[in-house]
């Protein structure tokens, strides 16, 4: 570690206690190890469909959990495993959902892209790019209408900002002054297309003024700064009803999905971003600033690996959902669609 890097590290962690940094490191590492285990399971054919990993962006999910109050909502994209783990979803249920098993978060019918855990504030991962922004605005409108004091945090990738429903949802939020925070996780690529080919203006938050939003934009290098700045936006939404557009400049160290080998990136680029990986920086801080023994750090990692191994072993052995489960939650029962066929109108089966 060169002197300049160490000086910056010490400045960034000034005022943080050993226990706080260990907590943040542990929670980021839990997400990293869950995702690495998911990648291995995918290559063994245990997971079907798409799998979008969150490796490199873990600090955002951990900071979000710490900044939220009970009852606040997260509405996310298909890259949502990190939020589920950070918000406290059972890792066994998360792994089982990836495997399509009945014990999964939503009974195995959602899979990787549709994690949902209402009790912990996760109101869905959405597979259609940009189309969840009006959904999130609807959540915020419900809070405004009922006066429940809750804030909705809506996450999207940089590739979503050109989608029509994003503009529609943000316009509504600005007009109605909804208690919502829109967060762009700018991980440098829209699928495999670099930012410079998808955005005419690099600063996504320059759009905020057109919606009447506050804005913030910064590189994500630690949980603590991300928590503080997200917290300011959440408080603004809760107390003043003013939405915020935040651009979090981050990086994903895997391809868009498991089917993407990411050959469009140079090794030098990846190595450069690794220097600012919040997980690696937290580890370096624990070693150099807080003098945490190597044995203690190894024990933390071993315990997390054991947790994830147990979660994926549980998922592998868990039963598949019954065939009729595919009809669950599709249609509300009522006078015509109850259990009795005699209550249905003629011609309806």
UniProtKB/TrEMBL annotation:
SUPFAM superfamilies: Thiamin diphosphate-binding fold (THDP-binding)
Keywords: Oxidoreductase, Pyruvate, Thiamine pyrophosphate
Example GO molecular function: pyruvate dehydrogenase (acetyl-transferring) activity
Biological process according to GO: pyruvate decarboxylation to acetyl-CoA
Domain of life: Bacteria
Pfam name, any one: E1_dh
Cofactor: thiamine diphosphate
Domain Dehydrogenase E1 component: 27-324
InterPro entries membership: DH_E1, PDH_E1_Alpha_Subunit, THDP-binding
Gene3D superfamilies: 3.40.50.970
Protein name: Pyruvate dehydrogenase E1 component alpha subunit
Taxonomy of the source species: Bacteria, Pseudomonadati, Myxococcota, Polyangia, Nannocystales
């Amino acid at each position: 570690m060169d002197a300049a890097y160490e000086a910056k590290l010490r400045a960034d962690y000034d005022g943080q206690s050993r226990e706080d940094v260990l907590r943040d490191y542990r929670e980021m590492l839990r997400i990293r190890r869950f995702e690495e285990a998911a990648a291995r399971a995918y290559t063994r054919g245990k997971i079907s469909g798409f799998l979008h990993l969150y490796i490199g962006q873990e600090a955002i999910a951990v900071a979000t959990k710490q900044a939220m109050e009970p009852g606040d909502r997260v509405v996310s994209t298909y890259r949502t495993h990190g939020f589920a783990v950070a918000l406290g979803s059972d890792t066994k249920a998360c792994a089982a959902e990836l495997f399509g098993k009945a014990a999964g978060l939503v009974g195995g019918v959602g899979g990787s892209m549709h994690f949902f855990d209402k009790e912990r504030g996760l109101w869905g991962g959405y597979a259609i790019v940009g189309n969840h922004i009006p959904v999130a605005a609807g959540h915020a409108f419900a809070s405004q209408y009922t006066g429940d004091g809750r804030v909705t945090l809506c996450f999207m990738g940089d590739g979503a900002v050109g989608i029509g429903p994003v503009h529609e949802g943000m316009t509504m939020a600005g007009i109605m002054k909804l208690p919502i925070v829109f967060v762009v996780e700018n991980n440098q690529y829209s699928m495999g297309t670099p930012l410079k080919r998808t955005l005419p203006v690099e600063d996504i938050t320059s759009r905020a003024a057109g919606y009447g939003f506050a804005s913030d934009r910064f590189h994500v290098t630690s949980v603590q700064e991300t928590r503080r700045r997200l917290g300011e936006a959440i408080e603004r939404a809760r107390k003043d009803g003013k939405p915020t557009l935040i651009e979090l400049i981050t990086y994903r160290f895997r391809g868009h999905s498991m089917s993407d080998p990411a050959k469009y990136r140079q090794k030098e680029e990846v190595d450069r971003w690794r220097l600012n990986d919040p997980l690696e920086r937290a580890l370096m801080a624990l070693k150099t600033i807080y003098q945490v023994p190597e044995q203690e750090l190894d024990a933390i990692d071993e315990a997390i690996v054991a947790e994830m191994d147990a979660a994926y072993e549980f998922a592998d052995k868990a039963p598949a959902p019954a065939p009729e489960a595919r009809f669950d939650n599709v249609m509300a029962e009522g006078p015509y669609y109850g259990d009795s066929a005699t209550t249905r109108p003629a011609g309806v089966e």
